[in-house]
């Protein structure tokens, strides 16, 4: 067991391999039941998983903002999550970080025969995606895994928009898809009509179901248009934030807060923000 006094913990020099081992040692120290951090010792897979998701989103946020100076730290935070889970797995006797890195290395080599094998690289990205799925199926068959459904393996923990997109992509691979955006838009109109009817006649559970149906079809429209719904909504969230910040600044210049304003004034300032090119 690595102790906090181990020289590896405090050695900031060295190459990537050294720094990786150092991070593993730091995590082991934090989890030491006698000398570690009480908070870290109390955690388990379930309590850490939300932080893992959060850190992945923060990486995506830094990339979206092109905040390259922040990305180093965000990637480090995400890497720590991998080390954290591997450390807990090691303690429980499931596997260790060596098994994690060996498994991903083996997978990446075996699933890229056009790079690491004899196959030709002269194929499209779409063909490479199809080949990837064939290799995965062959791996499952070789491992004796029972038949896997088309939608199996799409992670439940994904953001809902991203999971909807993955589910639809899986179904489309076997032909369960509308031929064009025209049919998708017709379905959006239908689902919007059903949502209005639910609002007027049904309870909250049915209303939520109809609302979910509409969101699901909106994801499908984005997919048909080659758009990532998660990225599109994230961009719109950013635009809304910047324009509302503009409203707050303008109101502050007038000696007001949003709570002291009204919809008409704030809506006019929103239009002003648009005209000023706030995106």
Tell me what you see in this structure.
There is one protein chain. The chain has about 280 residues and is an all-alpha fold. It folds into three domains: about 5-110, Helix Hairpins (Orthogonal Bundle), CATH 1.10.287; about 160-225, Orthogonal Bundle (Helix Hairpins), CATH 1.10.287; about 230-275. The protein contains 13 helices and no strands. The longest helix is centred in the N-terminal third of the chain and has 25 residues, at about 70-90. The radius of gyration is 25 Å and the shape is globular. The model has no long low-confidence stretch (mean pLDDT about 90).
Number of helices: 13
CATH topology of the largest domain: Helix Hairpins
**Corresponding CATH architecture of the largest domain:** Orthogonal Bundle
End-to-end separation in angstroms reads 53 Å
Characterize the overall form.
Answer: globular
Overall strand count: 0
Cα Rg:
25 Å
Which stretches of 5+ consecutive residues score pLDDT under 50? none
The chain-level structural class is mainly alpha
Task: Name the CATH superfamily assignment of the largest domain.
Answer: MazG-like
Could you describe the largest sheet, including whether it forms a barrel?
A: none
Q: Helical residue percent?
A: over 70%
Given this structure, which CATH class of the largest domain is correct? Mainly Alpha
**Mean pLDDT reading:** 91
């Amino acid at each position: 067991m690595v102790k906090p006094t181990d020289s590896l913990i405090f050695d900031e020099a060295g190459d990537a391999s050294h720094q990786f081992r150092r991070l593993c040692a730091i995590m082991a120290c934090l989890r030491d039941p006698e000398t570690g951090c009480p908070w870290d010792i109390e955690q388990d897979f379930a309590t850490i998983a939300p932080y893992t998701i959060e850190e992945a989103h923060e990486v995506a946020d830094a990339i979206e903002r092109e905040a390259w100076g922040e990305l180093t730290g965000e990637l480090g935070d995400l890497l720590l999550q991998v080390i954290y889970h591997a450390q807990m797995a090691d303690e429980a006797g499931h596997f260790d970080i060596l098994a994690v890195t060996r498994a991903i290395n083996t997978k990446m080599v075996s699933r890229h025969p056009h790079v690491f094998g004899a196959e030709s690289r002269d194929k499209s990205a779409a063909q490479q995606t199809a080949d990837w799925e064939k290799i995965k199926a062959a791996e499952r068959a070789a491992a004796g895994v029972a038949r896997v459904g088309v939608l199996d393996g799409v992670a439940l923990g994904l953001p809902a928009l991203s999971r909807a997109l993955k589910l639809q992509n899986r179904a489309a691979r076997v032909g369960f898809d509308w031929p064009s955006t025209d049919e998708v838009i017709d379905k959006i109109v239908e689902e919007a009509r059903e949502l209005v009817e639910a609002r007027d006649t049904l309870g909250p559970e049915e209303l939520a179901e109809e609302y979910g149906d509409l969101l699901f079809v909106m994801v499908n429209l984005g997919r048909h248009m080659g758009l990532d719904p998660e990225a599109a909504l994230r961009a719109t969230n950013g635009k809304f934030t910047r324009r509302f910040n503009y409203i707050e600044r303008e109101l502050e210049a007038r000696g007001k807060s949003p709570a002291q304003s009204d919809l008409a004034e704030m809506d006019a300032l929103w239009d002003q923000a648009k005209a000023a090119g706030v995106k």
